[in-house]
TrEMBL record:
Residues 4-151 form the DOD-type homing endonuclease domain. It comes from the Bacteria. It comes from Candidatus Lloydbacteria bacterium RIFCSPHIGHO2_02_FULL_54_17. GO terms for biological process: intein-mediated protein splicing. GO terms for molecular function: endonuclease activity. It holds the Pfam family LAGLIDADG_3. This is DOD-type homing endonuclease domain-containing protein. InterPro entries: Homing_endonucl (IPR027434), INTEIN (IPR006142), Intein_endonuc_central (IPR004042), LAGLIDADG_dom (IPR004860).
Length: 212
């Protein structure tokens, strides 16, 4: 369930309509994640495919009507307008890896590519991982929660047309390796987005010979 909560923090929303009905929504371009969420929640709700805009991938969505779940999310501090005000909920340490992995599957990425070293002919690998959020406070909280496993990391603003559109928590080589182990080798890793895991795994195996 911590995985589901983490993914909700990244790509979920809460809705209360005019008739007082309460809904939870999850939406992402990777249908695989919603299948994992259905399994975790033992849900039989339908995964809907939304119309694809030109130049964009298809978006998948699952909507769950549940006043109880809506209330539980409120207790964790989530609101209907959470994107810029969200803070990290209190997660027991043994479940933090699952929560972080869920958030990473929604709003995280790995960069692993060879670049030419300046003023030299040889190429070198550039490896980093990052989390994105509209809430700088959330990323500050997350960075603090990860202090036991990482030594560095920094938060930077994302800008679009000279305006801040969001924030990123960025980790370089060694901290990304520690993050990989924390998210995927924690003994409760049942749900994860395969394409992100494979790229992350390729990076740590190539650079450090670490196999998972």
């Amino acid at each position: 369930m911590a995985y589901v909560l983490g993914f909700f923090a990244a790509d979920g929303s809460m809705l209360k309509n005019s008739r007082g009905a309460h809904f939870i929504e999850f939406h992402i371009t990777d249908r695989e994640v919603l299948v994992n969420i259905k399994k975790a929640l033992a849900s039989n709700h339908k995964i809907a495919k939304q119309g694809r805009r030109k130049g964009h991938s298809a978006l998948f969505r699952i909507q769950i009507g549940s006043k109880e779940m809506f209330g539980d999310l409120r207790k964790f501090g989530f609101t209907q307008a959470k994107s810029k005000k969200m803070r990290l909920p209190k997660i027991p340490g043994k479940y933090l890896g699952d929560f972080v992995r869920g958030y990473f599957d929604g709003d995280g990425c790995v960069y692993f590519k060879k670049h030419k070293v300046k003023d030299r002919k040889r190429m070198r690998w550039v490896f980093s991982s990052r989390f994105t959020s509209g809430s700088r406070g959330f990323l500050l909280d997350l960075h603090g929660a990860l202090r036991k496993i990482v030594n560095g990391g920094f938060i930077m603003a994302k800008k679009k047309q000279q305006k801040v559109s969001g924030h990123e928590l960025v980790f370089s080589h060694r901290d990304s390796l520690a993050l990989f182990k924390f998210m995927y080798n924690n003994g409760t890793c049942n749900h994860f987005l395969k394409r992100k895991y494979r790229l992350f795994k390729r990076a740590v195996e190539t650079l450090y010979g670490v196999r998972s």
